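Project standup — Tuesday

K.O.: blocked on the structure for the chain from last sprint. Re-posting the sequence here as requested.
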Amino acid sequence: MRRSMRHAAIGDTFAPRPERPSSHPARPLERTEVKKHLKLAAFLLAGLFSSLAALSVWAQEWPSRPVRIIVPAPAGSSLDLIARTLADRLRVMWKQPVVIETKAGAGGLIGMDAVAKAPHDGYTLGIGFNGPIAFGPYMYARMPYAPARDLVPIVLTTSQPNVLAVQADNPANTLAEFVDWARKRGDRFSYASVGAGSSSHLTMELFRSVAHIEAVHVPYAGSPPAGLSLAAGDTQALFTVAPALLPLIQGHRVKLIAVTSAQRSELMKDLPTVAESGYPGFESLAWNGFFTGSGTPGEVVRRINADVNTVLKEPAVRELLANQGLVAGGGSPEEFRAFIDSEGRKWGATIAKIGIRLDQ
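H.V.: unblocked you, prediction finished:
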């Protein structure tokens, strides 16, 4: 039977064809042609080596002007503290001003979008965190940037657990008592977060789902206003990092109920974990790190990574961060990217299960 044209085309694509003698045998290259090809190859290699050398020199000369660090949270937030702590050391190493610029709003999207759209030369960095990096792609139908495409992870700067805080006069002193209290309040219970889509927000949503409590979400632009809303009684609970609440704790305006790390924090040994308080396996960490725009030369990214790692290893810096409840990070850009990917998979499944969708 004759094969159809379609079947013949498919067969011809994958079946080996017999070799046919060429009617135009290959002509040996003349010596002058060989020389031309060799010259062309040498020219292309010289251009490649020249470009690599220029890139290396550029990386060595970087920075030749001030570096900007965008903080996608308000002044006084934990991100602001971390950025300023590192900037104080980096400006000495780089012999250039390191300017901190806060761009709060939209759960960190505004600040990180500015980083993504800045010139890709390493002179604009951003201190990104869970929300606008690992959570956003699973929560927003549209984002002004694509984290995996438009941002380059440079280095993990710090991580820390969240703590559950309530007003100092709240009758609950344990997590079980808090859950009973919240259930009795029903729809009169509202909780603050440091921003829609933040670790603060998702931690409470995850806890609500396992504790079976109802609550109204009230997002704020960062930890300072969220903490103040709790202290004033405008909201009744808040998951956030402990350093942001320190003045309110010392002023006896709020108190802590539990911590979201897998084990008790070394700095808060008396504070029980959510996991040990009746919710095994519960863990949520807030983390952050430096990013820059995609297209930034790899040599520059590695230079920044190496310098930040050096700063994070300084005993004085580690102690300063630890006093704020922060665990110093570090590592390579590749390790940071792998960590972000794992966080995205973990929380993406949680976001889908809970059904969180935010408009942007």
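K.O.: great, moving the ticket to review. DSSP finds 13 helices and ten strands in the chain. The longest strand covers residues 151-167.
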